[in-house]
């Protein structure tokens, strides 16, 4: 009792000591990165960064901050953000000692304690998993890849033609179509068909069969708050995760899709193991390389979450920017018509990836669309290795202390005037076209290409699904403009678009579609 009495008498002294200790630790943290400028208070508190992440516009917050404070800035006591391509490439290089930050990547786990290629933190495990998966994402082993995409592109065209065409007669009422929703149906069908060997059937049904889209916004919002508030370790605790997360017993949403995904994987797994089926698609490749059934399930589910939303975003953004820029629209459609006229693609065929890649203006439009509105803006922070690191960033030798998180300002990189010109906020595909390439222009074009493609990651962290996304984008843009004419139904509010820690969820991109008389 005497000890308790003494402690009570000294309560203010103890409180003062705690304040001094806390203040000293915070000051030490502040001093550690004090050389880096940033918004007010970021050296002492996570508040600015939390507000950015939960704003649904984090990509704009980061871009505005780097425009104001520099190419490497402070956004938290231990967090930096950069739009420097040299630093970003350095951190993600194949032999780089930088690693992923658990607070961000671990938040994307589908099931508690089970990692996919994006949530893996251990570098050795990550490298081995990529090696097993890489062939399945390529067209070398997955010989059905392009025909599968062609099939669903044709389904999309047939759906539009059968249900959503408006008359070219201005005296007849139009019937707008939500292109955002139809594109999501397309990407979900493609990624499920590629990943499981069987499409979910959204295009055929013309509806969100498993109610994935309606569940995504709620799920992504929850993940955004968990990540922003640093609650990942708590919500990844298995008992709590199983209680609050999606369940395969659910009758709709993510849980229902997980159940369907597991059933399809089990069927393919059992058929492959019994020798009854020897496929040549993605899952067959995974099985042949010894991936466990649970790992295949986790990776397939990641494909749905990441692959469908990001590719759908790219296609939506491209269509919105093309249709809202008449000069670009006319030029691109003329190139497409000329390609058809010259026999590059037959009437009953979907254009091949190889042929689409030969069309210079189509290539320029796609690259400019990915630049002006990146399909994904995940900050994907990397951790500075032991002992710290020194690198020349934009001509200045800069030291990064050990353990610092350095994130990616995607939009800021895509809008750097020294890389893309003074008019970086304007959609101008011609910036990618040079009439006569001299050595200087070739070098500049290569830097522009490499910089834009960094939205798919770089080096050891480059997105395995990049070739699939490129193929989908090329084919859909070509075929939609080949067969139909488009106009924006609601120019004042063309769509609803929110950013959830890097993933865009978009809806109500209402378009009026008419058949082309070509």
From TrEMBL:
<keyword id="KW-0560">Oxidoreductase</keyword>
<comment type="pathway">
    <text>Hormone biosynthesis.</text>
</comment>
<keyword id="KW-0503">Monooxygenase</keyword>
<feature type="binding site" description="axial binding residue">
    <location>
        <position position="463"/>
    </location>
    <ligand>
        <name>heme</name>
    </ligand>
</feature>
<keyword id="KW-0408">Iron</keyword>
<keyword id="KW-0479">Metal-binding</keyword>
<dbReference type="InterPro" id="IPR050121">
    <property type="entry name" value="Cytochrome_P450_monoxygenase"/>
</dbReference>
<keyword id="KW-0812">Transmembrane</keyword>
<dbReference type="InterPro" id="IPR036396">
    <property type="entry name" value="Cyt_P450_sf"/>
</dbReference>
<dbReference type="GO" id="GO:0020037">
    <property type="term" value="F:heme binding"/>
</dbReference>
<dbReference type="GO" id="GO:0004497">
    <property type="term" value="F:monooxygenase activity"/>
</dbReference>
<dbReference type="GO" id="GO:0016705">
    <property type="term" value="F:oxidoreductase activity, acting on paired donors, with incorporation or reduction of molecular oxygen"/>
</dbReference>
<dbReference type="Pfam" id="PF00067">
    <property type="entry name" value="p450"/>
</dbReference>
<dbReference type="InterPro" id="IPR001128">
    <property type="entry name" value="Cyt_P450"/>
</dbReference>
<feature type="transmembrane region" description="Helical">
    <location>
        <begin position="12"/>
        <end position="29"/>
    </location>
</feature>
<keyword id="KW-0472">Membrane</keyword>
<dbReference type="GO" id="GO:0005506">
    <property type="term" value="F:iron ion binding"/>
</dbReference>
<keyword id="KW-1133">Transmembrane helix</keyword>
<protein>
    <recommendedName>
        <fullName>Cytochrome P450 monooxygenase ABA1</fullName>
    </recommendedName>
</protein>
<dbReference type="InterPro" id="IPR002401">
    <property type="entry name" value="Cyt_P450_E_grp-I"/>
</dbReference>
<keyword id="KW-0843">Virulence</keyword>
<keyword id="KW-0349">Heme</keyword>
């Amino acid at each position: 009792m005497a000890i308790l009495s003494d402690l009570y008498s000294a309560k203010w002294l103890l409180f003062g000591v705690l304040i001094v200790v806390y203040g000293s630790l915070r000051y030490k943290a502040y001093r550690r990165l004090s050389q880096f400028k940033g918004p007010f208070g970021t050296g002492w508190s996570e508040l600015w960064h939390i507000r950015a992440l939960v704003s649904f516009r984090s990509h704009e917050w980061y871009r505005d901050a780097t425009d104001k404070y520099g190419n490497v800035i402070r956004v938290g006591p231990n967090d930096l953000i950069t739009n420097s391509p040299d630093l970003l490439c350095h951190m993600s290089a194949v032999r780089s000692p930088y690693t992923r930050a658990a607070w961000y990547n671990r938040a994307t786990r589908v099931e508690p304690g089970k990692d996919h290629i994006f949530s893996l933190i251990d570098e050795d495990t990550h490298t081995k998993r990529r090696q097993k998966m890489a062939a399945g994402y390529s067209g070398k082993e997955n010989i059905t890849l392009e025909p599968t995409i062609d099939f669903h592109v044709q389904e999309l065209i047939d759906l539009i033609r059968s249900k959503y065409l408006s008359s070219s007669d201005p005296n007849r009422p139009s019937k707008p179509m939500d292109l955002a929703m139809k594109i999501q149906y397309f990407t979900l069908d493609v990624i499920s068909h590629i990943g499981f060997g069987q499409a979910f059937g959204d295009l055929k049904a013309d509806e969100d069969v498993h109610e994935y889209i309606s569940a995504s916004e709620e799920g992504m919002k929850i993940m955004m708050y968990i990540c922003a508030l640093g609650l990942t370790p708590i919500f990844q605790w298995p008992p709590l995760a199983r209680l609050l997360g999606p369940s395969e017993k659910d009758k709709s949403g993510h849980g229902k899709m997980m159940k369907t995904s597991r059933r399809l994987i089990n069927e393919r797994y059992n058929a492959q193991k019994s020798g009854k089926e020897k496929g040549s698609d993605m899952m067959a490749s995974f099985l042949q390389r010894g991936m466990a059934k649970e790992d295949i399930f986790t990776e397939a589910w990641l494909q749905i979450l990441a692959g469908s939303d990001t590719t759908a975003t790219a296609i939506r953004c491209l269509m919105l920017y093309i249709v809202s820029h008449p000069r670009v629209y006319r030029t691109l459609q003329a190139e497409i018509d000329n390609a058809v006229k010259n026999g590059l693609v037959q009437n009953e065929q979907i254009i091949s990836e190889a042929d689409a890649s030969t069309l210079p203006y189509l290539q320029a439009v796609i690259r400019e669309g990915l630049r002006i509105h990146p399909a994904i803006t995940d900050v994907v922070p990397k951790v500075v290795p032991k002992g710290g690191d020194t690198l020349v960033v934009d001509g200045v030798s800069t030291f990064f202390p050990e353990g610092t998180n350095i994130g990616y300002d995607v939009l800021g990189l895509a809008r750097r005037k020294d890389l893309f010109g003074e008019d970086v906020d304007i959609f101008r595909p011609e910036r990618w076209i040079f009439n006569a390439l001299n050595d200087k222009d070739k070098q500049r074009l290569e830097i522009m290409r490499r910089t834009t493609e960094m939205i798919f990651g770089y080096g050891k962290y480059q997105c395995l699904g990049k070739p699939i996304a490129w193929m989908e984008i090329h084919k859909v843009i070509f075929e939609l403009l080949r067969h139909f004419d488009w106009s924006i139904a609601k120019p004042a509010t063309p769509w609803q678009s929110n950013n959830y820690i890097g993933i865009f969820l978009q809806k109500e991109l209402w378009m009026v579609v008419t058949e082309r008389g070509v």
